[in-house]
Design a protein that fits this description.
four-stranded mixed sheet, 10 strands, globular
Length: 267
């Protein structure tokens, strides 16, 4: 059983990832196929479906960090040699996002993704459904679909929630001709912070602990309200989110002592 960087190991049965829950209420998922640049195969898809079920149901988990082993890449998307199971009827086929996406699996606990190295193609499924994305200064982002004669659709379509139209279109169209560097990724809002490579995992864990220390229902309600509003009309987004604090605030409000100084960080 592999021990985590922080906290107690609770499981060792996964083959493509390392999944740990620390005693600080942070779950850490580490992609663990570095020999194939952490590309995903059917086994990884199935394991992520199981992991998201655990994350959703286990209230001991309050925040989640997603990171990757190896030096060269966070992930380069689908394993082009092993592939994945595809239904012969295209209308019955499942998209990889049904397995990989936290929000598609109704996980409202905050997900922090810590990106290093190459980040390509289907890896965007993870980024597109993360809540906080940070990267190291060696990270590069690209989508190779068009270079291989394939339409790039789902990844850039969901990127439009995070970055401007022109940036998403350029990533989708140019394939292997261009990569977005870490500083450019920060400028366009693809990530919210860039750190040195050797500080990446520690910084992601630090942010996750800050969130895990807050009232869980308040944090999860905030995540759900914001994500749900993305599919609402402007009018609905003004009215419907009112129900989220009505559901939880009476259960979760904390009384802070007057004059108590709380530490904060300027970013």
């Amino acid at each position: 059983m592999t021990m985590p960087t922080n906290g107690e190991a609770v499981t060792g049965e996964f083959q493509t990832v390392i999944f740990d829950i620390g005693d600080d209420h942070v779950a850490t998922i580490t992609l663990n196929r570095p020999d194939v640049l952490n590309s995903f195969n059917q086994r990884m898809l199935d394991e992520f479906a199981e992991i998201w079920k655990r994350c959703r149901a286990d209230d001991d988990i309050r925040a989640i960090v997603l990171r990757a082993a190896g030096d060269r890449a966070f992930s380069t998307g689908v394993d082009r040699k092993q592939g994945r199971i595809r239904h012969p009827n295209p209308w019955s086929e499942d998209d990889p996002g049904f397995f990989l996406g936290a929000k598609q699996n109704r996980v409202w606990k905050p997900l922090i993704i810590a990106i290093h190295g190459m980040f390509a193609g289907g890896a965007f499924y993870w980024l597109n459904e993360s809540d906080v994305a940070i990267c190291s200064d060696d990270a590069t982002f690209f989508d190779p679909h068009t270079t291989y004669g394939m339409t790039s659709a789902l990844e850039p379509a969901n990127l439009l929630r995070r970055i401007p139209f022109g940036e998403a279109m350029r990533i989708a169209l140019f394939g292997l001709d261009e990569r977005v560097g870490a500083e450019r990724a920060l400028t366009i809002g693809l990530v919210t912070e860039v750190v040195a490579r050797d500080a990446l995992w520690g910084r992601a864990h630090e942010l996750a602990v800050r969130l895990a220390e807050k009232q869980p229902l308040a944090i999860q309600g905030t995540v759900k309200a914001i994500w749900d509003s993305l599919s609402m009309s402007p009018g609905a987004a003004r009215e419907i989110p009112l129900m989220y604090p009505q559901i939880t605030n009476k259960q979760t409000q904390s009384v802070f002592e007057s004059g108590t100084a709380r530490q904060w960080e300027l970013r």
